[in-house]
Amino acid sequence: MEDKKIISIEDRIPKLKKQRKKKANRRLVFYLSLFFVLISIIIYLQSPLSYIKNIHVYGHHVLHENEIIELSDIKNDTNIWKVNLSEVEDAILKNPFIKDVQVQRKLPSTIAVEVEEYKIIGYLEKEDSYQPLLENGEEVDYENRYQQGDAPLLIHFDDEDILNSIAGQLQGIPDNILRLISEIHWEPEKENKYKVNLFMNDGYLVKGSIRNLAEKMEVYPSVVSQLEPEQKGIIHLNVGVYFEEYVKESE
User: Closest by alpha carbon to 121, among 159, 162, 154?
Assistant: First the structure.
């Protein structure tokens, strides 16, 4: 029978005291760390360190950065935690150009505003200016928004139903083709009120119908690629697709 080693209580007490001291020290370190973290947070919240120093705007093309910042009503030297992000988003969404917006805090002192704008699909001819027509069909009465070359001018579109029809078609035209269109003139005839003439940036005139304009314009690059560079004329996109060269003056 093996002898069992007997450890007296006196021998165990120092070890127990040592273990308890280690646990107590760990607790003390934990509580001190937590205390300093809380103190640091309070100091940060109450000090200029938590004030907004930068407002960064992303995704804008039509609106200027300062306009979006003004819409947000966010001011520098405002406590970053006092900004109500949902209220800021609602304020920015009131602008007709804004389709979607996300506002985020970027610690320690930056507010990030990312917007998505409605695409401009045309510019409506008015008395002495051009008003943007957005992809959602809304006319925007904004001055100085005409950016030459990014969308066609819409001439003589004074009928609301016709305007809605051309807006729907322009939404379906790929951007690379839409940028080739300089002007679209509504030229209604007695037998065809949907007739339009499209003046292209590369020198061609396209005659077509509003009803199937988006579908027909898909073949435009293919038609032009088959023509000689010096050939200029009319591309008909009605019942069939064919090219009619301009008659030279000498002829």
Answer: 154
